Amino acid sequence: MLVNSKEILKEFKRNNKAVIHFNINNLEWTKWILEECNRLNVPVILGCSESAVKYMGGFDVVYSIVTSLIKDLDIKIDVVLHLDHGHSVESCTKAIDAGFTSVMIDASCEDFNQNVLITKEVVNYAHSKNVTVEAEIGIMGQLNHDNVNFGSTTNVSDVLEFVKQTGVDSIAPAVGTVHGMYRGDLKIDYDLIHEISMKVDIPLVLHGGSGLSNEILKKCVKNGITKININSDLQDKWSLGVREYLANNNEVIDPRKIISSGMDKIKSEIDLKLNIND
Length: 278
Ligand SMILES: [Zn+2]
Prior knowledge:
Number of helices: 12
CATH architecture: Alpha-Beta Barrel
Number of domains: 1
Low-confidence stretches: none
Radius of gyration: 18 Å
Order of helices and strands: HEHEHHEHEHEEEHEEHEHEHHH
CATH superfamily: Aldolase class I
CATH topology: TIM Barrel
Bound molecules: zinc ion
């Protein structure tokens, strides 16, 4: 069933566990993630970025694909359809109007007051439609080719003030992770995660979870993270599977066979990530 993220996040937070947000890119990824999470009987957050929405054809297409798969595959678990990194009020509004049950408004590149104003506008509209809102504060690290910009971590009193002023449902504070497939040593500030989680009532979200071992992810959860976003890890594993398949089957032209050759690797990666709650 399609639901907003409120109850799921509440329950995972209460149990000191983390729900995984997997990004979707097309029909196949959506299907595989739903099938695997349903097989394991765990709720899932399907994150769709603005560029993935555009790629798939639009907000209505994404909503139709997700709801139709839930119906036709007889998916029993709770599913959240979440706009990942909405960069404007307009984009969040469009997602909500199409039926997305959760949105992230990312105005973290704005100054504090502007981020509050923009987030508040999205919260007001979303809550009137029973949609949950995630926001971001601080500057997340970014991986651009081989250059890593580590951004800057968030200060605790800013998070407290931001949550109080916006009424947002969950928050992604910058705590030292990096967007993209980062494989080096990260300086994750576990103490900062812990301190924020002690002072802020709402669930905390970790962006840039890809490339991190389960040991590191578990440490983040232990310190107060309730939602972990995984995008690049699935891309990495899928492309590995496809590359292997094509190297051994260079005469195959059936797109279904080519695209699906990454399926097993994606499903194993989903299993691996879900192990953090064991
Ligand atoms: Zn992110």
